[in-house]
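mind reviewing both lines:
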Amino acid sequence: MEITLDLLQDEEAEDLFRFEIENRAFFEQWVPSRGDSYYTRETFLKRHRELLAEQASGVCRFYLIKDPEGNIAGRINLVDIDAASGTAEIGFRMGEAYGGKGIGSRALSLLLSTDSTVDKIYAKTTTVNKSSQKVLERNEFIHMGISDDEFEMNGEKMKFVNYEWDRKK
């Protein structure tokens, strides 16, 4: 399936809100919850405007991963961009209907090949999120270790797994 990465825009707020609500239970199996208030229209729209302001300032870029029909398949974000050092952190999430199809790997590859402003990217995922670990490793992220801090999510103990990607290597 062909995909596109579209920089987050104001007019996509409602579609993104629907995407987040439809996939909430799925996402919360793998990552800590954003909390109930995030899923109210008022809070979501306020946060959406805040993200657009952050993006305009240059400290982050939020992309929507879209299928050929223009439906949101997922999100991929560069945050804490430090232009001086050429570093950023990455986060991504695929909607449940799009998982297991290689779309996450293609989206990350597309981002890495088109965004040349960042030379080093840091990522982390949970020890139980094997799919995200595979996406990172398929895109030449190097496993840097597992955090010492353990936490519980959904009744399961886990830790964060840290990764790093370096364009210059």
In short: The chain has four helices and nine strands. The longest strand covers residues 72-82.
